[in-house]
């Protein structure tokens, strides 16, 4: 085998080296350099790797590591079936084949085998399959043992059916046959599980899984059998059967917990739950025909309901359930079902009786939760959960009564159409309105009992508010005067606005808005409700406490509402109420000088303006009046506060709009009448700004006013009247702008005068240009084209020369 490390040969050219050379005599490779030693060491390591690789090629393949084996298994799984899947499929198919063969054999041999023969064959096959499953389980062949367990149970079914055909058991298809089959299956499953556990230490899944459904089938067949055999009281007997099934399932759960049969534990738990639901359904249906006290208590109708309540505690026998958070569920269900027995007689007495019964239960269990919270805080969830179980009927009644009351309040009359003494005409409801406050109180007690200690105070406030609302709704439902609802709401809203915290101010304002909406049918009530809010907001705003910002912001809205209602009460026309309301709101903004008041005033003012203008006999006069008033208020606001200087522009625009409306109303058509005042104002403002700061640009200060002064006249001249006194005056004005701009060195007048004057000159030239001979136009066009072509060619030449110059650069 050739080697790579050769000290006698040059590593580069392969020449033979002399003894102790410094360099290669042929290629001059340095041999005393440290890199030469490193190269020789690397070549020796390569020789060692070759030797080891050769030895591995001749030796047997080593066992794969667990990681490699796992990767190999995953690779096989990706390419096909897993190793454990193949025998499972084969065993499942084998078990199915055995069962089919047994059925076919019995069907064929039934006519010529005697009873003894058939019995012997079935017993031998069943016992053999069961014994084989235990034997395979001892040898740790789990899949095979499970398959034979399934075969054994299938043969047991055939045994029972065969016994029925032979007359030794009830005929197949009857309830008796179902009882025998269920009992035999349960017994065989338990025996098989016990043999596997005792002899092999195994826990077969099939036997555990079949036990619970077999028990459920046994209970159903036994209940049907009892009903068939019992003329009277069949339902009660069936209830007893299902109760026994629940107890049997609980016993299986206890057995499974002790023997660690996990599958049986889960399956039995599920079957027990199903049986309990069936027991509960039968008990409720049985008592639905007679819900009176006599039928339920004197005749024992509630017996099985109480039994079901007691059986609901059986899941606590499972230690895992007792240790988990779900342990409260059986307790809640048992207590709720026991309490339901007290409510059932009320179902026969009407909606009011049901509301009283459920409300009483909610309140009692809420008090129990509150008491438990002091002694055992963690156990509070049980009574709270029972209270929650009966909340739905109470909540439905409360919501329905409130909805009826709200509908009645909103339908009293149209806005401002009723007197102060108008009454609420509420329609009839399914519940007595006098039960609304007790129902809300019951819900509040339950909420307080379930609320954590940290939120107890907040919950108490919410409960108090809910009781107050329920009281007002009750008054509305009892056809009380509208004032009896509106005034308490208004006064209750004023208290937190005037004296409460900042968060309470928001609540008070919202409540005040509700009171204002409810008071709309009566102008007097609306004025009173809004006035109370105005007084509370004024006190809070002037006091300067926390929440004053919200009070200031609410003042314009509340004040406008109060003024509008008071105006209607005094008989003031809507057209006059509009500008009067705007004037008061604007004066408030001028006196307050606060940003929140300004914003609220801007949001409020358009609505009375719109109402006043639409209600006026002369729309143009009213619109001009309102625009003038708004513009004057905005300008005054800008003059009273340096921070609001820009508001003057909006005020000026409104004043100009008011002027335009009046000019249009009197028939003025000249555009200068509309734009000249505003342009003059802009020029005055621009000249003052330019005088104060000469370094500022004339474009920024004078251009808006100059454009507004010149553009309307220019457009009129260009479109309508090119030869007129307006055109002459416009031309003189443009000339003055050009001369003045050039003399003063201002760009804005020079630009406006030049552009406007040029357009004016072109417009004056247009009629004569149309009469010019065509050859003149053609000559002018040709000259322009020649100049353009020459310029283009010169640019191209210069670009080519520049490219040659760059190419010569190095």
Automatic annotation (TrEMBL):
<feature type="transmembrane region" description="Helical">
    <location>
        <begin position="725"/>
        <end position="742"/>
    </location>
</feature>
<feature type="transmembrane region" description="Helical">
    <location>
        <begin position="504"/>
        <end position="537"/>
    </location>
</feature>
<feature type="transmembrane region" description="Helical">
    <location>
        <begin position="205"/>
        <end position="226"/>
    </location>
</feature>
<feature type="transmembrane region" description="Helical">
    <location>
        <begin position="599"/>
        <end position="617"/>
    </location>
</feature>
<feature type="transmembrane region" description="Helical">
    <location>
        <begin position="353"/>
        <end position="376"/>
    </location>
</feature>
<protein>
    <submittedName>
        <fullName>Zinc ribbon domain-containing protein</fullName>
    </submittedName>
</protein>
<feature type="transmembrane region" description="Helical">
    <location>
        <begin position="143"/>
        <end position="163"/>
    </location>
</feature>
<feature type="transmembrane region" description="Helical">
    <location>
        <begin position="388"/>
        <end position="415"/>
    </location>
</feature>
<feature type="transmembrane region" description="Helical">
    <location>
        <begin position="749"/>
        <end position="769"/>
    </location>
</feature>
<feature type="transmembrane region" description="Helical">
    <location>
        <begin position="435"/>
        <end position="454"/>
    </location>
</feature>
<feature type="transmembrane region" description="Helical">
    <location>
        <begin position="296"/>
        <end position="317"/>
    </location>
</feature>
<feature type="transmembrane region" description="Helical">
    <location>
        <begin position="89"/>
        <end position="113"/>
    </location>
</feature>
<feature type="transmembrane region" description="Helical">
    <location>
        <begin position="623"/>
        <end position="640"/>
    </location>
</feature>
<feature type="transmembrane region" description="Helical">
    <location>
        <begin position="324"/>
        <end position="347"/>
    </location>
</feature>
<feature type="transmembrane region" description="Helical">
    <location>
        <begin position="119"/>
        <end position="136"/>
    </location>
</feature>
<keyword id="KW-0472">Membrane</keyword>
<feature type="transmembrane region" description="Helical">
    <location>
        <begin position="264"/>
        <end position="284"/>
    </location>
</feature>
<feature type="transmembrane region" description="Helical">
    <location>
        <begin position="775"/>
        <end position="792"/>
    </location>
</feature>
<feature type="transmembrane region" description="Helical">
    <location>
        <begin position="461"/>
        <end position="484"/>
    </location>
</feature>
<feature type="transmembrane region" description="Helical">
    <location>
        <begin position="549"/>
        <end position="567"/>
    </location>
</feature>
<keyword id="KW-0812">Transmembrane</keyword>
<feature type="transmembrane region" description="Helical">
    <location>
        <begin position="673"/>
        <end position="690"/>
    </location>
</feature>
<feature type="transmembrane region" description="Helical">
    <location>
        <begin position="238"/>
        <end position="257"/>
    </location>
</feature>
<feature type="transmembrane region" description="Helical">
    <location>
        <begin position="702"/>
        <end position="719"/>
    </location>
</feature>
<feature type="transmembrane region" description="Helical">
    <location>
        <begin position="574"/>
        <end position="592"/>
    </location>
</feature>
<feature type="transmembrane region" description="Helical">
    <location>
        <begin position="647"/>
        <end position="667"/>
    </location>
</feature>
<keyword id="KW-1133">Transmembrane helix</keyword>
<feature type="transmembrane region" description="Helical">
    <location>
        <begin position="175"/>
        <end position="193"/>
    </location>
</feature>
<dbReference type="InterPro" id="IPR058062">
    <property type="entry name" value="SCO7613_C"/>
</dbReference>
